[in-house]
Amino acid sequence: MKKVLIYSVLLILGLIGSQVLGGKGKDVIDLITLWCLSFIMIHVGNEFDIDKNNPRQYAWDYLVAGTAAAFPWIFCAAYFVWVLNTDSWKDALVLARFSSPTSAGVLFSMLAAAGLSATWVFRKARVLAIFDDLDTILLMIPLKMLMVGMRWELMVNLVVIVVLLFLAWRYMHKLEWPTSYPWVLLYAGVIAGVCELVYYTTSIFEDVMPIHLEVLLPAFVLGCMMKRSEAHSDEPGGHEEGHSHESEEQRVAGIITGTFMVFVGLSMPVINTDGMSWNTLLIHVLLITLVSNLGKMFPMFCYRDEAPLKERLALSISMFPRGEVGAGVLVASMGYGLGGTALIVAVLSLALNLVLTGLFIIGVQELIKERA
């Protein structure tokens, strides 16, 4: 509980800092955020396992995750068009995609901090969060085509995604690379640096559509390919306590996770009310947040043969946290010239979901405390 509260405070401090900085230092903030996210996702991938004898189960999980991502997307797009009078469905569909992806880095860190790593909810949320982030990344390709037309850069993104997924499947836990924290920090830094270098290099030649590779997938895939660590703990990147080296691994993982929380908050766009009263804006933000989270409740109606209702409800609530991928969608939307009230509401809703993350995790903990 203590770690959940600390991480929540760090998120809020980061959000406040993003408004104070007013967009200054964005490049450095983005790079550190991606570095920390890569570190977390490498460990998540390293602890991830796939039963290759039962691939149909993952097809069902992907369908559940995709549906849980589609409902908030459609609900928010409809709200933007019918209530906020967004100019077109095309613009609304791009903007509303912010509500689809669960923040894998935030979710895993918070659930682990709450001591829920051994639960069915954590294991299932880990699969669904990865899949709905992947679904968002894939679906952004045709959405970008709606905005800028058919571009070769989008095909490059698709090819890279397919290759990474093949590598994760083919070489699951076969790569004999060291997994201690200095090495994982190095891997994470290389992944974040390469992704950003590709983006900035291609942006020189292609201002409209530079190649933007999300670090989440390559970091996760690398973790999947690496042989599993001998020891695991309830925190991403940690180990069981008892030896000084293992305790050091755990401390470093906690520091990086806390840093990630701060920088996720710092990476949020500057809030501008655009002349709308705060009361009216607050109502829209609350409604769009409610609508998007209702869409995330779909997993509650699935997995009836695996878990009781309370755990399925807890699983749905655990999918509420949004973060780095959703923020990336909003940044991309601004790059296409989209703005107005819908964008402001989307940014504030994303920020509100971040602030409420601690409460979501506490709710999950209360629902399954008897079985945790």
UniProtKB/TrEMBL annotation:
Coiled-coil region: none
Gene3D superfamilies cross-referenced by the UniProt entry: 1.20.1530.20
Keyword annotations from UniProtKB, A to Z: Antiport, Ion transport, Membrane, Sodium, Sodium transport, Transmembrane, Transmembrane helix, Transport
Residues passing through the membrane, by range: 32-50, 62-84, 104-122, 154-172, 184-202, 252-271, 277-301, 313-336, 342-364
Entry superkingdom: Bacteria
Entry's Gene Ontology BP terms: sodium ion transport
Record-given protein name: Na+/H+ exchange protein
Species in which this protein is naturally found: Estrella lausannensis
Organism taxonomic ancestry: Bacteria, Pseudomonadati, Chlamydiota, Chlamydiia, Parachlamydiales
GO molecular function, one term: antiporter activity
